[in-house]
TrEMBL record:
InterPro entries: Cro/C1-type_HTH, Lambda_DNA-bd_dom_sf. Keywords: DNA-binding. This is Transcriptional regulator. Coiled coil: none annotated. Pfam families: HTH_3. Residues 5-59 form the HTH cro/C1-type domain. It comes from the Bacteria. GO terms for molecular function: DNA binding. It comes from Floricoccus tropicus.
Length: 77
């Protein structure tokens, strides 16, 4: 899942560990999010969006991810 977590983290000059501490997850979770290997829970997405003063939709690239997901299902038909 594409996100803008890394972009927002770098704007705030935070390390992955610092961000992890702020939202009470492991640094590995942040690393996985940034590598698009992990889909955040709604609760984690909400905490990150609040921290970065943005919406979940913006932070998690919801429009783009939704289009990508729809393409997967189009190919199955």
């Amino acid at each position: 899942m594409k996100t803008k977590v890394k972009e927002y983290r770098l704007r705030r000059n935070l390390t992955q560990q610092q961000l992890a501490d702020l939202v009470q997850v492991s640094a590995r979770t942040i690393i996985s999010l940034e590598k698009e290997k992990y889909k955040p829970s709604l609760f984690l997405a909400y905490k990150l969006a609040l921290l970065f003063d943005t919406s979940i939709e913006e932070l998690c690239c919801m429009e783009e991810n939704m289009k990508d997901e729809e393409k997967k299902y189009e190919n199955l038909q």
